[in-house]
Design goal:
This protein is mostly helical. The chain has a two-stranded antiparallel ribbon. A two-stranded antiparallel ribbon has the order 3-4. It has a two-stranded antiparallel sheet with strand order 5-6.
C-alpha cells in the first residue's frame, strides 16, 4: 500500500474514532472539560486512569533535567576542543518555536509573554480601527442576509475634518497620496510578526479550541456574516437552505446530508470537517493555543461552506512584513470558478487543497508543515473534497433572470437604475460579469497611486453573487460595508458617481 494511503487511513481512522464534533448548540466554557460537546476536543483529552499504589510514585529521575537537550552527555570528550564544544548552541528550527527570541526558549516563556502583551496588541489595533472607522453599527431596518441578520450600512470610513466624499473624488491620485487622505489603506493583521488564522468571538464561544492566547479578533460582529450561514446545494436547489440552522460538523454531517449527498460527496465533506495541523493550531511549541491541538478543519474557516470573516496572512509573499491580511472567502459557487487563491492562480480546487495541506495550512511553507505534521492525502480523497465543494451554490437571487440580469417585473426603479450604473458608468461589469459576476482573471488596482504603500499587485476577481452575505469586503476586509466598497471604487476608478448613483448601485448589489 502506498505511504499516502496509509497516512490517509490513519487520519480517517482517527476521524471515525474521535472527530464526532460539535453540533450548533456549543458550550461557552473556555476550559476543556470531559463534558465538552466538541468531539475534536474529546479526541485529544487524556483521561485519568486509576493507578495501583506502586504506580503512583514519582521518582527524582522523572523530574530531573537529564532530559533537556542542553544537558545531553557528549559522545566524546574531544568535542571540548572543537568549535562550540560540538553543540548546536544557536537556533534549531525543529527544537525552537517559530520566532523564538533565543535558543531553548520554552513554550511557557513564549506563552506567558504573549498573554502579557495581548491587551496592548488589542488596544493598539482597536485604536487604529477607531481612528479609521465609525464602528457604531447602523443597521438597515429592512435589508437582511439570507437567514435574517440585518445589513450594516456605511460608509464607515472617517474623513478628515472639512473633507467630503464629493471633494475627495475630485482630487487627483497624486494629491490624495501627498495629503495622505485616502480613506481605505490596507487593513493590517493585529499581530503581523506572528500572523495566522484568527476567529471571531461568536465562533470561539461555540468552539473554544479556536481561541488563541496571543491575539483576538478585531472587527465588531455587526460587520461580519451571519452565524451560522445558510447552505445551498446546486444538486438539490428545491431544498433551499439545507443548514437547518446548524453549524455543520463531523458530529452531525452524516445525519444532515445522508439523504442529500452521494457517498463520494459525503466522504469529501467528512475530510473537510477533519482537523489537520495549521501554523497556530498544532501540537508543537509553535502553536498559539493553550493546549496542543489536532489543528483546524477546512470548515472551521469556511463555516458551512461560507465564511464568518476569519482572517490570516497571504501565504504567497515574503518577508513577513510584506504579507497582507487575507479575509476568508466563501466557497459558494466554487463550481463556477476557474482559478483559486488570491495570488497563485491555481487552476483547480484539487490543486489548491493539496497545496495547502503541504504548506502548513495557509502559511505557504512546507518546512513548517513537516514540523507540525505533514499530511499527505491521496488525489482520490482530495477529489472527493472537491466533489462536495462543487455542490455549494450561491443563495437564491429571485430578482435575477437566468442570464443574471434584473427581472424588470420584480425589481424596483432604484435597483434598475443601479443595474445601469453597474454595467455602465460604474464599470463594475468589466470584471464582474454575469451570471456568476466574475471574469476568472487577476487585476491590479495599483493602489500605490493613492497610498504610500507598495500596492498589492494582481489579485483575482471574486464573485459578487450573494455579496450581501459576505462582509467585510476586498481581500483584506478593509471595506466594512457595501457603501464603503462603492466609495472605494469611485475613488480608485475615478468614476465621479453622484450620491444617488452610489445609493442605486448598493441597492442593485443587494439583489445579486
Amino acid at each position: 500500500m502506498k505511504k499516502s494511503n496509509i497516512l490517509f487511513l490513519a487520519i480517517t481512522g482517527v476521524s471515525l474514532f474521535g472527530f464526532i464534533a460539535n453540533n450548533a448548540i456549543g458550550k461557552n466554557d473556555k476550559e476543556v472539560s470531559k463534558d465538552s460537546d466538541d468531539a475534536v476536543v474529546r479526541a485529544q483529552e487524556a483521561r485519568a486512569v486509576e493507578k495501583k499504589e506502586i504506580d503512583k510514585q514519582t521518582e527524582a529521575h522523572d523530574k530531573s533535567d537529564i532530559f533537556k537537550a542542553s544537558n545531553a552527555t557528549p559522545l566524546s570528550d574531544v568535542f571540548k576542543n572543537q568549535p562550540d564544544n560540538g553543540k548546536v548552541s544557536g537556533f534549531d528550527f525543529y527544537r525552537d518555536a517559530l520566532n523564538s527570541k533565543k535558543p531553548f526558549e520554552t513554550f511557557e516563556e513564549i506563552k506567558n509573554k504573549d498573554i502579557k502583551e495581548r491587551p496592548t496588541v488589542t488596544k493598539t489595533q482597536q485604536a487604529l480601527l477607531q481612528k479609521r472607522y465609525d464602528l457604531t453599527p447602523r443597521l438597515d431596518p429592512h435589508a437582511t442576509m439570507t437567514r435574517g441578520k440585518p445589513l450594516a450600512v456605511g460608509p464607515t470610513a472617517r474623513l478628515p475634518d472639512g473633507l467630503t466624499w464629493q471633494k475627495l473624488a475630485k482630487m487627483s491620485s497624486d494629491e490624495i497620496r501627498k495629503k495622505n487622505v485616502f480613506p481605505y489603506p490596507s487593513l493590517p493583521h493585529p499581530k503581523q510578526a506572528t500572523g495566522g488564522q484568527v476567529f471571531p468571538a461568536v465562533q470561539i464561544s461555540m468552539f473554544p479550541r479556536l481561541e488563541r492566547f496571543d491575539v483576538e479578533f478585531d472587527l465588531p460582529e455587526a460587520f461580519l456574516p451571519e452565524f451560522p450561514p445558510a447552505i445551498f446545494l446546486q444538486n438539490r436547489p428545491e431544498l433551499g437552505d439545507v443548514s437547518r440552522g446548524e453549524v455543520v460538523s463531523i458530529n452531525n454531517f452524516y445525519e444532515l446530508f445522508k439523504d442529500i449527498l452521494t457517498p463520494v460527496q459525503l466522504n469529501g465533506l467528512q475530510m473537510l470537517l477533519t482537523p489537520l495541523p495549521q501554523e497556530e493550531f498544532n501540537p508543537t511549541d509553535d502553536r498559539k493555543t493553550e493546549q496542543p491541538s489536532l489543528g483546524v478543519t477546512c470548515f472551521d474557516c469556511h463555516v458551512n461552506g461560507h465564511t464568518t470573516g476569519q482572517f490570516h496572512l497571504s501565504p504567497d509573499i515574503r518577508p513577513q512584513e510584506r504579507r497582507f491580511r487575507l479575509d476568508t472567502t466563501s466557497l459558494r459557487g466554487m463550481f463556477n470558478q476557474q482559478i483559486h487563491g488570491s495570488k497563485r492562480s491555481l487552476r483547480s480546487v484539487e490543486d489548491f487543497t493539496e497545496f495547502e495541506f503541504r504548506t502548513a495550512y495557509f502559511n505557504g511553507d512546507p518546512i513548517h508543515a513537516m514540523k507540525k505534521g505533514f499530511p499527505v492525502l491521496d488525489r482520490i480523497h482530495v477529489s472527493h473534497m472537491a466533489q462536495f465543494q462543487n455542490m455549494l451554490d450561491f443563495p437564491p437571487a429571485p430578482n435575477l433572470d437566468r442570464f443574471g440580469h434584473l427581472d424588470k417585473d420584480k425589481a424596483t426603479e432604484q435597483e434598475l437604475r443601479g443595474e445601469k450604473v453597474f454595467f455602465g458608468k460604474g464599470q463594475c461589469s468589466t470584471c464582474h460579469q454575469p451570471p456568476a459576476f466574475l471574469d476568472h482573471q487577476m487585476h491590479d488596482l495599483k493602489l500605490e497611486r493613492f497610498l504610500n504603500e507598495p500596492g498589492d499587485g494582481p489579485i483575482k476577481t471574486f464573485t459578487l453573487r450573494g455579496i450581501k452575505d459576505s462582509p467585510p469586503y476586498l481581500h483584506d476586509g478593509r471595506l466594512l460595508t457595501l457603501e464603503d466598497t462603492v466609495e472605494f471604487f469611485n475613488l480608485v476608478l475615478q468614476l465621479q458617481l453622484t450620491d444617488e448613483e452610489k445609493s442605486d448601485l448598493v441597492a442593485y448589489m443587494r439583489q445579486l
